[in-house]
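Lab notebook, bench 4. Still working through the backlog of constructs that have no structural model yet. Next entry is a single chain of 237 residues. Request: give me the C-alpha cells for it.
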Amino acid sequence: MQALPGRCFACQRTFPQAAMAEHLLACRPQHDGQPLWLFHIQDNDFPDTFWLFVEIAPTAPLAALDEALRQVWVDCCGHYSQFVIGGETYARRPTPDPVALVLDEHAARRTMDVPLAQVFTVGAAAAYAYDEVWPTELRVRLLAEYAGHPLAEGGFRVAARNYKPPRTCRLCARPAAWLYTDTWPLEPYCDQHARQHPAWGQDDAFLPYVNSPRVGLCTYRGPADEALRFEVEPPGP
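Model written out:
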C-alpha cells in the first residue's frame, strides 16, 4: 500500500509522516498545564499507510492506551489485546470467560492496570496486538513529554493521523465504500455495485471500507464514536 501523509488536528495542515512528529512538537500548545505523553503508533504491516499520534497522560493506566487504540482503530468485538514491553506481556480481555482467564493466568500475563509511567520512558517502544484469531498488530513508541490542554481522566486526544488510502470500485471509477470479504484479496466496491452483488445482505459479506489497519477483518466497521472517524482522502496536488 502507498505511503500517505496525514493531518494535524491542531492546525488542520497536512504533513508526511516523517515530518509530523517534529511539527506536532512545535504546533501543540506549549504552556503550563497537564503533563502529556505523545505516542506514535503504526500498523506493523503497512507502517507508511496507517499511522497515528496520540496524546495521553503518563499517570493513566496502560489500559487507557489500549482503550484509545480500540476506540480509534481496532475494536470490533471486544477481543483480547496485549502489549509486549521490555519482554513483559500485558494483557486485557474486556469481556472475559472463565476458560480464558485461566489460560491467561497460566501464561503469566500481567494486567494493564499498571500506570503508563511505570512501563514507558521517552523513546521506548512496544508491540501491540488485538485479537488472537484475526490479529491486528501495531508498533507503539513514546516520542515526547510536554504540558498541554488537560484531558479527562483516562482520556486521550488524537493529535494527527493518516489520510484514508484511496481505492476505487473494481467495476467502476467511483470511490470504494465496501469490501467484499468472501474472497481473497478482498474486493472493493462502490455503494451501488455492492448493493447489486448477489451476496449483498448476507451477514458480514460486505464490510465498510474504513480508514483503519483492521479494515475488512472480523466484523470491523470503524469507530463506534462518530467523532473518531476520519474518512478523508489525501488532498490533491
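Notes after review: The mean pLDDT is 93. The radius of gyration is 19 Å. Flag for follow-up if needed.
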